[in-house]
Amino acid sequence: MTALRPSVWTIAGSDPSGGAGVQMDLRLLNTFELYVGSVITAVTAQSLVHFSASTVLAPDLVTRQINALAAAPMPAPRAIKIGMLGSAENARVIGAALAQHRAFVVLDPVTTSTSGGTLADASAIAELRLLLRSVDLLTPNVPEAESLLGASIRHVEDMPAAAAALRRLGAKHVLIKGGHLGGPVVLDFFQGEDTSFWLSNHRLGGQVRGTGCALASAIAAYVALGHSLAESLILARARITHGFAHAQDVCPNGRLLGDLAGALMPDDMPWLNNGQGVPDQRPLFPSCGPEPLGFYPVVDSSAWVKRCGDLGVTTIQLRVKDLSGGELRREIRSAIDYCAPRGIRLFINDYWDLALEMGAYGVHLGQSDLDPCDLRQLAAANLRLGISTHSYDEAARAHALRPSYIALGPIFETTSKDMPFAPQGMARIAEWQRLWPYPLVAIGGLTVAHAAEAMRRGANGVACISDVTKAADPERQIRRWLNAVTQGIDPVVPSQR
Questions:
Q1: Of these residues, 27, 177, 319, 384, which one is catalytic?
Q2: What is the pLDDT of residue 155?
Q3: Do 371 and 239 fall into the same domain?
Q4: pTM of the full structure
């Protein structure tokens, strides 16, 4: 018996043009492997460019639609997207219905139509504020946030305070979309109970219908498929950017999102900055050169650095965990002095300040080490930067810094350290290589037997920690790694940036 697909519901108004509302929600949601249910709250008469009329459905009919979806054998929803409500009465009955379902609720608080109509009066907006107590994620654009708050948002600097005010009204998480504020980069601000961040993309020209509806629906879809909220925001934002870039000119001044099911590409992916202030310019770190990073051992002493380098390894990471003070400085100094004249790309793990002081080739940092680091100083000094990533949101955080490479892991189960992330698997290498415009290092649980395949799937380098240092014959193992990685390099395909 085939397992039931995850279920997502959309509760919104009907737009006969297909540019927004339930029609856009269904178009977006049906590109996923989901069971999709829909509830109509209002019927509008509008084209892509002109709004003429709307009729709000009676609350009893809205309730009956919800009850019909909830009846067996329909699968219970994992996520519910809410758009236009139309009236205060509908807001109340929908709020009561939400209490009966343990679904993740995304509310896109639609108050006006892009084609010119008003979709919520003052009483509906007042009731909408009360509905926020049942909402997991609120996704207003700037005018919608202003309507809910009764206050102006004139600059991106105003968005964090506005998000906090909306959370005080009851929404657990808030994403304010900043597209109305202008500028070459579109900035959205997310705030939850214990985290906040900015999502950014380069602005694309023109206006496209239905982006707010589609974004909220895409977030609901990704949550229903098991992604974290942060990952869902990243992927949904990328999906809508992709659709915007492929928008269809249906009529003069009427454009629709296009290619909603297409493969995401680097230009679609947003970058993520933490919530400390408004992001300014992104740093840019130097390239590691045209030669692939190749076999990339991670070792814990300068002696191991020399042992690997003497056998022809050209990329090495020094990861010292049990030294400090003068001993640590001597280890790093010794490794740099050995590698620099030989053209070996040596990355210092964590100790960015010592690497900067001593003129190292590069630094490798984990996600928790990014905020304390003076990244602009590193970039200005032309040090290379590698960043560990384990999820879409961590990769988007790395993307904000334009590093020299990103590392993806763990590919398989690893015993080198406790990992809160499930193994990525080999297939994720090709996906990561397609999504992010940086050389990719695969790491975690890899052995010589995996090296060639990892390179063929798109890795620019393959890293290991214990497979060399704990080998019975390290020199032989290093040679085996070098040979295996070479076999996986396609000489016809140039290496990445």
A1: 319
A2: 94
A3: no
A4: 0.94
